[in-house]
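INFO batch 0412 | record 1 of 1 | parsing
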Amino acid sequence: MTQTLDITRTVGELVVERPGRARVFEALGIDYCCGGTKPLDAACRAKGIDPADVFTRLDDADAAADEDADAPDPDRMTLTELADHIVRTHHAYLRRELPRLGELTQRVRNAHGAKDARLVELARVFSGMALELGSHMMKEEQILFPMVRQLETASSLPEFHCGSTANPIAVMEHEHQDAGDALAAMRELTEGFTPPPWACNTYRVLLDGLHELEQDLHLHIHKENNILFPRTAAMERRLRDSGA
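INFO prediction complete | emitting tokens
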């Protein structure tokens, strides 16, 4: 068992320490982004999972990550580098995939909604989430991330128009929770993104895309909730406390 693993540590901390562990939590259905503040033992109890089994899986993930040491580590990036990485990687992914998946959800709903009413609800949930994510990314790129970059290069505490980065961060975290709820609803509506025997190829492609979206968005939210936001808040506190 990896000595650094401790069931009282939060799920988010464990993923910050070794990002490859996210795949384990994804497979077990343990929320490491919006629910990243929950201790590992509590997360396991909520899912009825033996922590010893989780430790074994995390050990395997750590070993696999060691074989791929070239993967970027968000926790080693500067705040500016991390914000830029999120925009280039995750925002770009969403802008590419949301329109494609939106079209697929409409096509599947129109073709099979009469046979399975859950597909009508799936299209509704996806459409609402996609609309909110578009607004969410705009607020991050035009408001919060410029504040983060300014804070990192400042020699004294900047005067922000909204008072503090804590205010937009609180809004972003609330919207992350909404996105997480939408993902959970879509997973439930599709029985874990599992195609029924009668599913056409378009339906199968849609479910595969939604599953990939869930994984990417969980990782996206994790990098913000558990790394970027806490480090931003800590930097702002240091500047305020120093009186610089």
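INFO post-check: The CA atoms of residues 29 and 91 lie 24 Å apart.
INFO record closed
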